[in-house]
Design brief:
The longest helix is centred in the last third of the chain and has 22 residues. With 151 residues, the chain is mainly alpha-helical. It contains eight helices and no strands. Helices cover 65% and strands 0% of the residues.
Length: 151
Amino acid sequence: MKTWNKHMEPIEFIQKKVKEYYWNDDINCATTNLKILSEKYDIELSDQIIDSALGMHGAGQYGAQCGLVEGTLMFLGILGRRMDISDNDIVNSCNEFAQQFENRYNSLLCDVLRPEGFSSHNPPHLCEEFTCQAVLFNVDFIEGFLHKYRE
């Protein structure tokens, strides 16, 4: 498993990884987000988890919940269980995350957050810049989550 580069600024590392995952591996935002979070927090993700994120970029390009939200919600569950946090506290943290994300970006919906929606005329990985900003936001939220529940 690749690991977080502690010698780079977080945004620089995130930009590098988003570019790699989008352009070299051609994976979606939910999977990219999950992989970066797993590297940051040194949690290996099974193939099943990666496979489950396949259609999470706006519900398979339908424009529903953003994959950057969905991937983080999944990761909070994975991390919370690993830390023996109660299911209720994990669910409450997911709710808090969704509220904070929506307050910051004015929506949880891909068709609102994605600059041009999903059209065959759009270039690939249109929301690369937004992905970098959102992953940094997600890391900051998870840092607060860890601080709150660490013993």
